[in-house]
Write a structure and sequence with these properties.
TIM Barrel, 25% helix, 8-stranded parallel barrel, Jelly Rolls, 25% strand, alpha/beta, 2 domains, 8-stranded antiparallel beta sheet, 18 strands
């Protein structure tokens, strides 16, 4: 069911222009309420509320008042969140001549209100047959909090009774004052609508299959190994946190039964990434923070070194010759549209000059340093039981409203490919750019359903995520939010969904918090209800799990 419960628009008979029409250019939708708003993908949980999605009758879209308060809390903005895109449809009073349009958008980095990547205008003479008459892309602003008006004059004057705006809404998109410019008198040179298939661009991304294991070098189950926490904070209270040991890795790399016997292999891939402090804190979103992450990752007798030793133990105990674990490292992000930013990034490469993150060349230099230093450290370690053939793009969305974002990503993809490495991505649910993951250059993308962390999100979210990822050829991230019964039950629903929909048989990625994490807690637990998390995850990883709904 649509969040907006819009009425169906039925085909209207051919209409004649208004007899009293005139040639004065005016706003044809002034004071009008949309006749329909439709979302492409489901809106659920707390998103399905006026706080995140304004109701269809909220009167600010066409009231003639432009908001000049550049914050998400201002009530003069019409709110759209997730759902991938909205189709907002208006009906004119009569058949009219349409010449152009204007829509105002809010950009506020601190609240993650973004500019849309795509705004299209479509017209119809009867409400059913549509033509896309304008495509707006490259909607940028480097301002941290500002209003951006998207204004376009059409290449022709079109006859129309209905107008529809398709606006990409993978994150938060706030807008106001939609204006459609035209006349009620229709000039002789006005052209009629030529009906077309509006979703043909989207259809080109539809593959209807989860990725094969070959898409990422044969890996099947990748565990997110959060290994680096900020200095002088949590690490002071828990000195060993962020330094993962051989003993902690063993029950992740091998399945160990309740009697302590090692029976089989388990996770075959480990992704190294820092905690979220690196996303939003200026203290760590800088050269020193990046250096700390890499130093931590390659600490002696911990993390990568410990993984190498644990892999050797598993191979020896299970009698597997030349046993390997795949490892992946993060390409950290030089600038995102939220959180704090240092005035200067710092001297990343030792040339005595501070890099500045408002400069594309400096951002490029920092990413190259991150990649090159990681490769150099890994090769110097001579980790004979590990293989490394791909990197992970650390940010979980694409900040299209930053003019350098896609160019920087394209450069990174090209550079990694030139070195023989792949790049994969794990966007959050319906994050900006997720539908274009392949066009952006990623070799694999894996979407998070984010079901585990909020009680208000219905179980249907898991199945919606499975349907969307399959359509787009993406894989699926499983998530567990804690060891209490409520979180265990929510996690088990991931496994049920995976067995029922088939993403169990594709590449899978797993979030369990910081290693040793929830799977390790389940492995160590004497509580059979918690222990089943470990045992069931093993069965799932081996494609042997049977949904509880099918037993």
């Amino acid at each position: 069911m649509s969040y907006y419960n819009s009425c169906e628009i039925k085909k209207e008979a051919d209409l004649l222009p208004c007899e009293n029409g005139d040639n004065t250019v005016r706003n044809l939708v002034f004071g009008k309420q949309p006749v329909a708003i439709n979302e492409l993908c489901p809106i659920d949980g707390e998103t399905a509320t006026p706080r995140f999605n304004s109701p269809i009758d909220y009167p600010v879209l066409t009231d003639g008042v432009r908001s000049d308060v550049y914050t998400y809390t201002d009530e003069r903005w019409f709110r759209l969140t997730r759902g991938v895109s909205r189709s907002i449809i208006f009906r004119f009073d009569n058949l009219s001549a349409v010449k152009g349009f204007s829509i105002g958008f809010l950009k506020e980095d601190v609240s993650a209100v973004r500019l849309p990547r795509r705004v299209d205008m479509c017209l119809s003479e009867n409400g059913v047959d549509w033509q896309r008459v304008c495509k707006c892309r490259d909607i940028f602003s480097d301002g941290a909090a500002c209003r951006v008006d998207v204004c376009r004059e059409l290449d022709k004057t079109y006859r129309a009774l209905y107008v529809m705006f398709e606006i990409e809404t993978v994150g938060h998109v706030w807008l106001d004052e939609i204006e459609v410019f035209g006349t009620t008198a229709i000039p002789a040179d006005a052209v009629s609508i030529v009906a077309e298939e509006l979703d043909k661009d989207t259809a080109s991304n539809i593959v209807n299959a989860y990725p094969s294991y070959d898409a990422l070098g044969g890996v099947r189950n990748i565990l997110l190994s959060y290994n680096c926490i900020p200095r002088n904070k949590e690490s002071e209270r828990r000195p060993g946190l962020g330094l993962i040991t051989v003993e902690e890795y063993l029950p992740h790399l091998a399945y160990i039964d309740k009697d302590g016997e090692m029976k089989d292999t388990f996770f075959d891939g480990m992704l190294y990434l820092p905690y979220s402090m690196y996303t939003y804190s200026a203290e760590y979103k800088c050269a020193e923070g990046w250096k700390h992450y890499i130093e931590n990752t390659f600490t002696e007798n911990a993390n990568v070194d410990a993984l190498n030793k644990a892999t050797a133990i598993v191979g020896e105990k299970l009698g597997i010759q030349n046993h390997k674990t795949k490892v992946y490292f993060s390409v950290l992000h030089t600038k995102v549209g939220y959180g704090e930013f240092p005035e200067k990034f710092g001297d990343i490469d030792g040339d005595g000059v501070d890099e500045v993150m408002d400069n594309f060349a400096d951002r490029q230099k920092a990413i190259k340093w991150c990649i090159d230093t990681t490769i150099e450290k890994f090769k110097a370690g001579n980790y004979e039981n590990l293989t490394h053939d791909a990197f992970y793009w650390f940010e979980e969305e694409i900040a299209y409203s930053n003019s350098d974002e896609t160019a920087l990503l394209s450069w990174t993809v090209e550079y990694l490919h030139s070195l023989g490495y792949k790049l994969f991505w794990i966007p959050y649910y319906q994050a900006s750019g997720f539908m274009e993951w392949k066009d952006l250059g990623f070799d694999v993308a894996c979407m998070q359903p984010n079901f585990a962390f909020r009680d208000g999100i219905p179980t249907q979210r898991l199945y919606d995520n499975a349907e969307i990822t399959k359509k787009l050829g993406m894989c699926y991230e499983l998530e567990i939010g804690g060891s209490d019964p409520k979180n265990v039950e929510r996690y088990m629903k991931y496994l049920d969904c995976g067995a029922e929909t088939g993403f169990m048989n594709s590449i899978k990625m797993y979030y369990q918090g910081g290693v040793p994490g929830e799977f390790y807690a389940a492995f160590k637990s004497a509580d059979p209800e918690l222990r089943k998390v470990y045992d069931s995850t093993y069965l799932f990883a081996k494609e042997k799990y049977v949904s509880r709904n099918e037993k």
